[in-house]
Amino acid sequence: MNAVISIVVSWNWYNTQVSWQYVERTTRKGDVDAVNIFAILKKKDGNHVVLVVKQYRPPLGKYTIELPAGLVDNNESPKEAALRELKEETGYVGQFVGSTGQQFLSPGLTNENMVTIFAEVRETQRERQEEGGGRRRGRQSGKATEGGGKGDVS
């Protein structure tokens, strides 16, 4: 199992008993659990777009459009994990530009954390891959999509 669900019983300021449910990630390999990649695709025509992927998310029961992302493996830095995930999920080879610090996206629910990696990709840096993206994970499509500057997804 990759996570543990816990319930904590405590007392609040009003001396009332309250319970708190949270999920704890148990697969952490270092300080950072995961990365997401904000990759700018620099197209030959001079336009720039943000790369996003369409993935099926079982907790939601539907597909989402999101930044490429993934877990940090053993003996891997967040930068290495991000460039690996970018290639696996989109087929593009990116160049590291920068990163954020550690982020906790839902600290009231989970201890999971991530780092956002910024990367640049040139249109000519895409490697051939099988239809449907890189490696398959369950029902995820892994299909790379370009997010247009007007909020469009094409």
Please write out the topology.
Blueprint: E1 3-11, E2 17-25, E3 34-42, E4 48-57, E5 62-66, E6 69-71, H1 78-90, E7 95-99, E8 114-122, E9 143-147
Parallel strand pairs: 3-8
Antiparallel strand pairs: 1-2, 3-4, 3-6, 4-5, 4-9, 7-8
Describe this structure in words.
By secondary structure, the chain is mainly beta. The protein has one domain: Nucleoside Triphosphate Pyrophosphohydrolase (Alpha-Beta Complex). 8% of the residues lie in helices and 42% in strands. It has 1 helix and 9 strands; from the N terminus they run E-E-E-E-E-E-H-E-E-E. The chain has one helix spanning 78-90; strands at 3-11, 17-25, 34-42, 48-57, 62-66, 69-71, 95-99, 114-122, 143-147. The strands form 2 sheets. Strands 3, 4, 5, 6, 7, 8 and 9 form a 7-stranded mixed beta sheet that branches. It is elongated and about 65 Å long. The two termini are 36 Å apart. Mean pLDDT is 81; it is low at 130-142 and 148-154. Residues 30-154 form the Nudix hydrolase domain. Residues 145-154 have a biased composition (Gly residues).
